[in-house]
C-alpha cells in the first residue's frame, strides 16, 4: 500500500461499513437464489436440503402440457416484448431530442430539460391510475401498447440522460470536421455522432429494458387478460400458490438480467470505449 | 493579377454577435494568391478563428463577401465549399482507424473504393506516416505529432481549393512545432494548395508563411512578408506582437537633417532616428534588441542606462537595461560586449538610426 492510503481503524471501519452495505443489498437476492434450490416444498429457510426440483418444475410449467394453463412462457414473452418496445421507443425519442437539447439553444430549452426529470418524481400509482382512466375513457383496446406507453413515459428520462451525457462527450469540432470534409448533416450524424454515442445509447437501452422488464406498479394497473407481464404473473402466483417454483422463476429473472448486462458490456463496454480518447 | 488568380478573397468581411455589441471580425479585406500560404497572426480573441470559420462556412458573415477561386461562397454550406480545415483540436475521428479517417472525405464524395485506397496510401506517404505501419492504427495509439499528420492527410487527400489551419500545432512542444512548421510548408508548396494558417505564435507564422496578416480587435493591422512585418511594423501593437521591441516615446524633435532627425525622448535622453511622418510629440520610436548596441563606454550619442540583468540563451547574450526614468530597454548579441560590466553599473545604449522606426502613438 502507498503511504497516502488509509490506515488502521479508519480503514477497518470503512471496510466493514462497505461490507455491511453490500450484504444488505445482496441479502434479499441471495435468499431468493438460495431458496430456489431448496429440496423442500415449503418456504423453510435455510433450506433443509438442496435440489434442482423447482427448476425442473419451472421447466414443466413452461414447456409441459400445462404450459398454456400456467401462462409462464407467455408472460415472459409479453414482458420481453414490452421491454424491447419501450427501450426502442425511448431511444427513438431520446437520440434526436438529446441532440436538440445539447447542440441547440432555443426558448424553453431549460424547461424541457427540467421536465425530463419529472416522471422520476411522479408516483407510479398516480400515473397508473391516470393512464387507466385515459384508456377506459377512450374505449379503445390498446393491448400491450398501453403498458409500453406508460413505461416509455416513465423511463424516457433514463435514455435521455444517457444520450445527453454521451452527446456531451462528442466534440462538436468532430461534426464540423466531417462537414468541411464534405459530409451532409445527415451523414455527419450517422457516421460521426451516432457511433460515438453508441455506448451511451446501448446502456440507456439496457437500463430501460431492465426497468421495464421488472416494472410492477404501472403494469398492475394496465395489464389485461391477454397482456399478462411476468411481474404480474409472479405477484399472482405468490398470492395463490406460494411454491418455491416462484423463487426459481425469480432467480431465472435475475440471471436473465445479469446475462443482458454482461452481453451489453461485452459488446460496447470494452470495444466502444477503447478507441475514444478521453 | 486578376481575381481568378486569387484562391481566396475577402472583402470587408464582418461578423458581429449579440446585435453588434461584439465585433468578432470588423471589416477584413485580404487576398491569398494561388499557392500562397498566409498566416493570420494575432492574440486570442482577435477574431482570427471566427474569420477562419466564416471562410469554411461554419459561421455566417454579418457583412462582406468571401470568394474562393473567384466564386462567391455566400450561402454555400461547408460541404459545398471544398475548403479543408485542420482544427486546433485536430478533430481526428476517434472511432475510425487512420485509414478510415483519411478516406472519410473521399468516401463523402463517392469516390470509387479502389481509388480511395490508392489515394489514402499516397497521402499517408506524403505526410510520412508509412501506410504499412499506420493505416490500421487507432487515433488513441498515436502521438500528438502523428495525429497532426493524420489530420493534415485527411484534409489534403480531398484536394481542397484552400486549406485552413486553426492553430493545429498549439498543443505540440516548441521543437516539434518548429519541425512541423517547416514540413507543413514543404508539403503545402509541393501540393500547390493555397493555405491560411491562423496562429498566435509569431515564430510559427514566420517560419511557415509567405505573408503574415497581423490581426487585433477584429481588424487586420498589417499584411506583408515576415521580414517586413518584423522590420517595419505599422504600429506599436504589431511591433510588440511579432517580437521583442524597445519602445521610446518622442518628447521633442530637436533637429531634422535630411533622413535623420535628432529627438529628445520622454525618458530624458537624446536619440537619432530615421525621420518619417509620425515623428511628432507622442510618436513611438521602435527598435529591435538585436539591432541595439551596448557598450561600457559612451560611443558617442548613446543613452546612459543602468544594466539590470544579463542572461545567456541559445548562443545569445541578452541584456536588460533601465533608463533613469525606469523605461526598460533590452539588447542581444552573440558577442559578449558587456563582459567586463556587472549589474547595477552604467552602460551606454545606442542604435543605428537606420534601424529605428517611428510609428503613431
From TrEMBL, chain A:
UniProt subcellular location: Cell inner membrane; Cell membrane
Database matches in InterPro entries: MetI-like (IPR000515), MetI-like_sf (IPR035906)
Name of the protein: ABC transporter permease subunit
UniProt keyword terms in alphabetical order: Cell inner membrane, Cell membrane, Membrane, Transmembrane, Transmembrane helix, Transport
Annotated GO CC locations: plasma membrane
GO terms, biological process: transmembrane transport
Regions crossing the membrane: 12-37, 78-102, 114-137, 143-160, 201-225, 245-268
Phylogenetic lineage: Bacteria, Pseudomonadati, Pseudomonadota, Alphaproteobacteria, Hyphomicrobiales
ABC transmembrane type-1 domain mapped to chain residues: 76-264
Topology within the bilayer: Multi-pass membrane protein
Superkingdom of origin: Bacteria
TrEMBL record, chain B:
SMART domains found in the cross-reference section: AAA (SM00382)
Membrane topology recorded in Swiss-Prot or TrEMBL: Peripheral membrane protein
Cellular component, GO annotation: ATP-binding cassette (ABC) transporter complex
Highest taxon of the lineage: Bacteria
Compartments where found: Cell inner membrane
Protein keywords: ATP-binding, Nucleotide-binding, Transport
Signal peptide limits: none
Any one GO MF annotation of this record: ATP hydrolysis activity
ABC transporter domain location: 8-242
InterPro entries with a match to the protein in the record: AAA+_ATPase, ABC_SmlMolc_Importer, ABC_transporter-like_ATP-bd, ABC_transporter-like_CS, P-loop_NTPase
Major place of residence: membrane
Pfam name, any one: ABC_tran
Function of the protein: Involved in beta-(1-->2)glucan export. Transmembrane domains (TMD) form a pore in the inner membrane and the ATP-binding domain (NBD) is responsible for energy generation.
Family as reported in the entry's similarity comment: Belongs to the ABC transporter superfamily.
Protein name: ATP-binding cassette domain-containing protein
Amino acid at each position: 500500500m502507498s503511504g497516502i492510503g488509509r490506515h488502521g481503524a479508519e480503514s477497518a471501519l470503512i471496510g466493514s461499513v462497505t461490507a455491511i452495505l453490500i450484504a444488505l443489498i445482496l441479502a434479499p437476492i441471495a435468499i431468493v437464489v438460495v431458496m430456489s434450490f431448496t429440496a423442500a416444498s415449503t418456504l423453510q429457510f435455510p433450506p433443509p436440503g438442496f435440489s434442482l426440483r423447482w427448476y425442473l418444475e419451472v421447466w414443466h410449467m413452461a414447456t409441459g402440457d400445462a404450459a398454456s394453463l400456467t401462462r409462464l412462457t407467455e408472460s415472459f414473452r409479453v414482458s420481453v416484448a414490452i421491454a424491447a418496445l419501450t427501450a426502442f421507443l425511448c431511444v427513438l425519442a431520446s437520440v434526436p431530442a438529446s441532440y436538440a437539447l445539447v447542440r441547440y439553444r432555443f426558448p424553453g430549452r431549460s424547461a424541457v430539460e427540467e421536465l425530463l426529470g419529472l416522471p422520476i418524481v411522479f408516483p407510479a400509482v398516480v400515473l397508473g391510475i391516470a393512464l387507466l382512466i385515459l384508456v377506459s375513457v377512450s374505449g379503445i383496446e390498446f393491448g400491450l401498447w398501453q403498458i409500453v406507453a406508460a413505461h416509455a413515459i416513465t423511463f424516457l428520462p433514463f435514455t435521455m440522460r444517457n444520450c445527453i451525457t454521451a452527446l456531451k462527450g462528442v466534440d462538436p469540432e468532430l461534426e464540423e470536421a466531417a462537414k468541411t470534409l464534405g459530409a451532409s448533416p445527415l451523414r455527419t450524424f450517422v457516421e460521426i455522432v451516432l457511433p460515438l454515442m453508441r455506448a451511451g445509447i446501448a446502456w440507456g437501452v439496457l437500463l430501460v429494458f431492465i426497468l421495464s422488464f421488472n416494472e410492477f406498479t404501472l403494469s398492475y394497473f394496465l395489464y389485461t387478460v391477454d397482456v399478462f407481464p411476468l411481474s404480474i404473473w409472479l405477484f399472482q402466483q405468490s398470492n395463490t400458490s406460494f411454491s418455491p417454483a416462484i423463487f426459481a422463476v425469480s432467480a431465472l429473472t435475475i440471471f436473465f438480467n445479469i446475462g443482458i448486462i454482461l452481453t451489453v458490456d461485452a459488446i460496447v463496454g470494452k470495444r466502444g470505449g477503447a478507441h475514444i480518447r478521453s | 493579377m486578376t481575381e481568378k488568380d486569387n484562391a481566396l478573397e475577402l472583402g470587408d468581411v464582418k461578423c458581429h454577435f449579440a446585435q453588434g455589441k461584439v465585433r468578432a471580425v470588423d471589416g477584413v479585406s485580404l487576398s491569398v494568391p494561388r499557392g500562397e500560404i498566409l498566416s493570420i497572426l494575432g492574440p486570442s480573441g482577435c477574431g482570427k478563428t471566427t474569420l477562419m470559420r466564416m471562410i469554411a462556412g461554419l459561421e455566417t458573415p454579418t457583412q462582406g463577401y468571401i470568394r474562393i477561386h473567384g466564386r462567391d461562397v455566400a450561402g454555400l454550406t461547408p460541404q459545398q465549399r471544398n475548403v479543408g480545415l485542420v482544427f486546433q483540436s485536430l478533430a481526428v475521428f476517434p472511432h475510425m482507424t487512420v485509414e478510415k479517417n483519411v478516406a472519410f472525405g473521399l468516401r463523402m464524395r463517392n469516390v470509387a473504393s479502389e481509388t480511395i485506397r490508392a489515394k489514402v496510401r499516397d497521402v499517408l506517404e506524403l505526410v510520412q506516416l508509412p501506410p504499412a505501419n499506420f493505416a490500421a492504427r487507432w487515433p488513441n495509439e498515436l502521438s500528438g505529432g502523428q495525429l497532426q499528420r493524420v489530420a493534415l492527410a485527411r484534409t489534403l487527400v480531398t484536394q481542397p481549393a484552400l486549406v485552413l489551419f486553426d492553430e493545429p500545432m498549439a498543443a505540440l512542444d516548441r521543437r516539434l512545432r518548429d519541425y512541423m512548421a517547416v514540413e507543413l510548408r514543404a508539403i503545402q508548396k509541393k501540393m500547390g494548395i493555397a493555405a491560411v494558417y491562423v496562429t498566435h505564435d509569431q515564430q510559427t507564422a514566420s517560419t511557415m508563411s509567405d505573408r503574415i496578416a497581423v490581426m487585433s480587435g477584429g481588424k487586420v493591422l498589417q499584411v506583408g512578408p515576415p521580414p517586413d512585418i518584423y522590420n517595419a511594423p505599422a504600429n506599436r501593437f504589431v511591433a510588440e506582437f511579432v517580437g521583442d521591441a524597445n519602445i521610446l516615446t518622442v518628447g521633442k524633435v530637436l533637429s531634422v537633417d535630411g533622413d535623420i532627425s535628432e529627438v529628445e525622448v520622454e525618458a530624458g535622453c537624446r536619440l537619432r532616428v530615421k525621420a518619417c511622418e509620425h515623428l511628432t510629440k507622442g510618436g513611438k520610436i521602435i527598435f529591435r534588441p538585436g539591432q541595439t548596441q551596448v557598450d561600457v563606454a559612451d560611443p558617442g550619442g548613446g543613452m546612459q542606462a543602468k544594466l539590470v540583468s544579463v542572461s545567456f540563451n541559445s548562443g545569445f547574450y541578452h541584456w536588460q537595461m533601465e533608463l533613469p526614468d525606469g523605461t526598460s530597454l533590452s539588447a542581444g548579441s552573440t558577442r559578449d560586449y558587456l563582459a567586463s560590466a556587472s549589474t547595477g553599473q552604467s552602460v551606454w545604449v545606442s542604435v543605428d538610426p537606420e534601424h529605428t522606426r517611428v510609428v503613431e502613438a
